[in-house]
Queue: 2 jobs
Job 1
Amino acid sequence: MIRVLIADDHVMFRQGLVTFLRAAEHIEIVAECGDGATALDLVRSLAPDIAVLDITMPVLDGISVVQAMAALRVPTQAIMLTMHDDSLMYSRAINAGARGFILKDDAYEELLDAVHAVVRGETAVSSTMRQAGIELEPATPNLTDRQKQILDLIAHGCTNRMIAEHFDLSIKTVNNHRTNLMSKLGLHSTAELVRYSLRMGGL
């Protein structure tokens, strides 16, 4: 049996999902809850095979739960079930350690397929996202510590001159860092850098 935890703060949606999965062969729902902190406690105490997590939940969001799971080195694998159909949120979830990313608009059957795929050691991604041609970023580019620091300051509205003064660098050096950041991340403006930082958990 595949032991599954369901965490979603939308009660009716969660109950429908639980009912569907309970009717499936080889699936056991070991617990359900409506917030991330409770989900993490249940993962610790029950060690399910799969945790199906909403991203947007009270107390602790789904991605933070996955990060905590990785830090605890629990054997449970996470599948994100979400309304967020963009590549940056996908990248953030996968980098945190999630093994699946399924949209709530997808059929329940796709989540069931994802559960089996993740148990087999595969990564499951929403067919809707793949068919729509949304770019799926498999990992965050390997930024240096200085690039991460500069990205954070850019996201907080600092100019090149302010960043240069903060790190005692030349404005030209800071501009080179900014150019390299955009190149690594495939972005083309300061606004895109700020949006990237926000989606990756900055600010």
Note: The chain has two domains: 2-131, 145-199.
Job 2
Amino acid sequence: MKSIWQAEVREELLERLGKLRPDAPAQWGKMNCPRMLTHVTDGLRMAMGEMNIASKNSPLKLAPIRYLIIYVLPFPKGAPTAPELVDRVPGEWERELAEFKQTFAQLTANSQQTDGREHPAFGKLSAKDWGVLGYKHLDHHFKQFGV
């Protein structure tokens, strides 16, 4: 299972990031590529506890469903997201890329900072859960823009 805590997986994701273009067409969904980049950067900030996202009363917090979503099933296209993770207006593309890289490096420098941290939809997650979920989220959105 791929996780952002694995060095080779981080390298793969950063290589794919380098192939993104601000004008890349979305394969699905409503976000454009710059909006997606701010969305995933803010998702990383949420994982570090730097963004407070309102908790949802959701069946995703039930252990068997949470496990299926994080470890077994692919992310559905067009799944709802927290408004706080799509509110930020993207700035200049190169600045947004640099911000993503810095935030990604900060998060992946210490997996234990996420251990036991609350996710607004899934509830309390282990560092292992956060690592797999982080990869699946980034992979999902990078595929959305063809990389």
Note: The beta strands are 118-119, 123-124.
